[in-house]
Amino acid sequence: MNELNVTNPDNAQRAQDEQWMRVALELAAEAAALGEVPVGAVAVLDGRIVGQGFNRKESDQDPTAHAEMIALKETAVTVQNWRLLGVTLYCTLEPCPMCAGAMIQARLPRLVYGAKDTRFGAHGSIVNVLDETQFNHRVAITSGVLEEEAAALLQQFFQNLRNR
Predict the structure, then answer these.
(1) What are the tens digits of pLDDT across the range 65-79?
(2) Is residue 68 among the annotated active site residues?
(3) Which of 68, 132, 147, 149 is labelled catalytic?
(4) Left, alpha or beta for 86 (phi > 0: left; psi -120 to 50: alpha)?
(5) Of 27, 28, 90, 137, which shows the fewest CB atoms inside 10 Å?
(6) Could you write out the three-class secondary structure of 78-127?
(7) How many angstroms separate the Cα of 127 from the Cα of each of 90, 123, 145?
(8) Contact between 76 and 82 (Cβ < 8 Å)
């Protein structure tokens, strides 16, 4: 896997990443409470939340209602620009190809995510959309932030579904 776009944050950045990821995990828990796959996303610009979302595919009956897509749309409205310059998106799960493509289209500077997605991941788990050098934009990525917590939330959700 091409790791050119992966960042290795210093301790201060790592603490900030964990702080925002905890907010994304809270949103993921909200999704789970609604019977949605527990994925949350928070967009941050200059130290404040400018967009957020959690999975709503079932609630909205919309295949595009992923946490990342909702957060990206809300962010564009907030900043009044489809180019999300200066924004960092925190997501509890590695993005799928659709969400990764939206991040590239939005010129998102940085993505921070928690758990790997071994079924749909677009940062190396299945495909490498975010590592494709032919695109005109590259997203800097920090992965594995609070990975255990994010993975545990997903595992518990699917365990509960199987036990019904």
Answers:
(1) 999 999 999 999 999
(2) yes
(3) 68
(4) left
(5) 137
(6) HHCCCCCCCCEEEEEECCCHHHHHHHHHCCCCEEEEEECCCCCCCCCCCC
(7) 20, 6, 20
(8) yes
